[in-house]
Amino acid sequence: MGKVVVVTSGKGGVGKTTSTAALGAAVAKTGKKVALVDFDVGLRNLDLIMGAERRVVFDLVNVIQGQAKLSQALIRDKRVDTLFLLPASQTRDKDALTEEGVGEVIDKLRSVFDYVFCDSPAGIERGAQLAMRFADEAVIVTNPEVSSVRDSDRIIGLLDARTMRAEQGEQIAKHVLVTRYDAARASRGEMLSIDDVLEILSVPLLGIIPESQDVLRASNLGSPVTLSEPLNTAAKAYIDAARRLEGEQLPVVVPFERKGFLDRLLGRRAA
Amino acid sequence: MSLLDIFKRRSSAPVARERLQVLLAYERRNRGQPDLVSILREEIMAVIARHVQIDQDYLQVSMDRGATMSTLEIDIQIPNKSAMPLAMAG
Predict the structure, then answer these.
(1) Which chain B residues are Cβ-neighbours of A193 within 8 angstroms?
(2) Which ipTM value was assigned to this complex?
């Protein structure tokens, strides 16, 4: 039986889709069978980030409504052959998803794949709740910034109340993934520190992804950064996070910025 | 710009942390429960309206949530009987 991991955040624009793609690809590269499911019905984007936007024929809603078989809707990645994508519908609205339908799809995926990553839409409404409903674990993507941390706290509350596991009295394993971490700003005391975020949310840390042009470039190219540039800092951080998700004990290194004496003296900004 | 200003400008993160801690402590406590402030406001208003005719414009309700204690401040201006027109006073 595979593990179902929801990638969620509450707030939009923090990096859920990018992180779903990067983590999923990193896990798949180790030989595990991985399915990425886009739950953002009406505003799908995982296909674009994965570079599969021109290969979408059927989607999650088609499968739920019986217009396509699951095997027809799954798109196999061209780079890693154990990586699959189940896109969201672009034309329907979010009410096209039913809880029973989603449950059946997740059950089938769970029986075939080692990992099922559910890319949640932003917000705390129906779509986000369905994305987390059947999850065993949750990756909470958070930026070190007040509104993102507040929304993550809301999401943690929902994970502990509205998921199947929570309702059955079981634990849902939660991990915080801090993205867009700017070492320079953190060193100037302008950004919440990793310790601040962890202390406030009291959820263990999965990894710290530095703010990086490489991630943006990977999105432009339609390739998860862990596949296109596996050696750069952000990709390495994702690969380590993926290993921790698989249970490996790896210490987390907080990215720091080496500053020259002159920079320090003049208070130069990196950004 | 003095040296103190530079220091102040740099340390916005601790302020962010403290604001979040206070806010989230409150939000966690009240998760899934109706908003206490709005209930209090409505009930207090109803009690007062039963006895005195008040104008919404003369009502101020404010809330200040602290880490250990919160203050709900209700300021209602009630016109004196002598100042009221006869019809209302009667």
Answers:
(1) 13
(2) 0.73
